[in-house]
Amino acid sequence: MKFDDIIQSNETVLVDFFATWCGPCKMVPPILADVKQRLGDQVKIIKIDVDKNPQVSQRFQIQSIPTIMIFKKGEMVWRKSGVVPAHELEKLLK
């Protein structure tokens, strides 16, 4: 499934832009697992490796990682670079 198809869906989609060599990026997966456990099917979480997906990264002008974005029906409704606590993400996604 293509990136655009995923973010255009009726689901709320959280996108984690990361790189395997990025130290702070390693702190994000347990946070996202916590959010997914709490919200279940209310949110779809996808991870985009900036090194393997340069077109998507350039399109959204990803300058620093991790960058987390939230999309609703194809529209970006929130964006932040850096590590975001689970409770803050949960509040934003509800």
Summarize the SSE layout with pairings.
Layout: H1 3-8, E1 12-18, H2 28-39, E2 43-49, H3 54-59, E3 67-72, E4 75-81, H4 86-93
Parallel strand pairs: 1-2
Antiparallel strand pairs: 1-3, 3-4
- Tell me the radius of gyration: 12 Å
Shape: globular
Q: Name the poorly predicted regions.
A: none
The class by helix and strand makeup works out as alpha+beta
**Biggest sheet record:** 4 strands, mixed
> How much of the polypeptide forms β-strand, as a percent range?
25-35%
Count every beta strand, where a strand is a DSSP E run of 2 or more residues: 4
Strand order, biggest sheet?
Answer: 2-1-3-4
Mean pLDDT: 96
Percent range of helical residues: 25-40%
> Helix count, per DSSP?
4
What is the rounded distance between the termini?
25 Å
Order of helices and strands: HEHEHEEH
